[in-house]
Design a protein that fits this description.
The protein is α/β, with parallel strands linked by helices and 273 residues long. It has helices at residues 8-19, 23-28, 35-49, 55-59, 80-93, 112-120, 133-146, 179-182, 187-190, 206-215, 224-227, 241-250; strands spanning 61-64, 67-70, 102-106, 125-130, 151-155, 169-172, 233-236, 255-260, 266-272. Helix 1 runs antiparallel to helix 3 (35-49) and helix 5 (80-93) runs parallel beside helix 6 (112-120).
Length: 273
């Protein structure tokens, strides 16, 4: 059977989405699907198994840091590792959570990072930017879906549309996969998610080098974050942590700390002015 080729948990998630009932409810009170529900399930199974469409795109949303983030191909699907970075960032900002912070999210994609920070820090003003107009449109849709007013999205190649703007914190999950690494990715990724949101030149370091060189003029050097010893830049990275660290040290930032995710992998850099 086609269903046997799928992860059973994925099938349960499909059934929950189609019926509007939890797995426990479905097990306690088994019922046949309506013809319309069965047609939807068959379509979704075909998309998942034969077209390698990610389940998140099939269901249309993912939970992320207390929000429901809408997802559409080819905009990058938010990952659990990115949610970890948001939660770690919020832990760092806890002593200043009631301050009117200005936060910039570079390469915002769905807007998940910007929206999660805006949701958790209602006194903050958050800006999210992406070079892809389709990503900005989806981020705006997520802003409306999340009913948040303290976040703004712009189409921008990193800082290009932000002349004169300064921020207390810059956070980013930029493209960082090398062309060689991209060739080894599963069809679920390569056939559905934008290559431009995944792959970076210079051995995956292009965006870190650009952020490091350009961020200085967009940071508030009198920020309360600096006074409290809280990092000014936080970036997710891939397989070259030392290259990321060196990019910021070469740009005269004073300290870089490489932090591990819950799997024990070095996953994000905290940078101090």
């Amino acid at each position: 059977m086609v269903q046997e080729q799928m992860n059973k948990q994925e099938l349960w998630w499909m059934l929950e989405a189609i019926t509007g009932k939890s797995k426990a409810q479905l097990l306690a009170n088994p019922q046949d699907l309506t013809p319309e529900q069965q047609k939807t399930l068959d379509t979704w199974i075909n998309e998942r198994v034969n077209l390698h469409k990610p389940l998140q795109y099939i269901l249309g949303s993912v939970p992320f840091a207390g929000l429901t983030i809408l997802v559409e191909p080819p905009i990058l699907i938010p990952r659990p590792e990115t949610e970890e970075i948001v939660l770690w960032t919020l832990s760092q900002l806890e002593p200043v959570r009631n301050e009117p912070l200005r936060i910039l999210d570079l390469c915002t994609g769905t807007g998940c990072i910007a929206l999660a920070l805006a949701h958790a820090l209602p006194q903050a003003t958050v800006v999210g930017v992406d070079i892809d107009p389709q990503a900005v449109a989806l981020a705006e849709k997520n802003k409306k879906h999340s009913a948040l007013s303290n976040v703004t999205f712009y189409q921008s190649d990193l800082f290009s549309a932000l002349k004169g703007m300064q921020f207390d914190l810059i956070i980013s999950n930029p493209p960082y996969i090398t062309h060689e690494e991209y060739a080894t990715l599963e069809p679920d990724v390569k056939q559905w998610e934008s290559i431009n949101a995944l792959v970076a030149h210079s051995g995956g370091l292009d965006f870190y080098q650009r952020i490091a060189q350009e961020a200085w003029n967009h940071l508030n050097h009198q920020s309360i974050l600096r006074l409290r010893g809280i990092p000014s830049i936080i970036c997710e990275f891939g397989t070259d942590p030392m290259g990321v660290e060196q990019a910021f040290l070469n740009a005269n930032f004073s300290k870089v700390r490489l932090n591990r995710d819950m799997q024990g992998c070095k996953r994000f850099a905290a940078v101090w002015v």
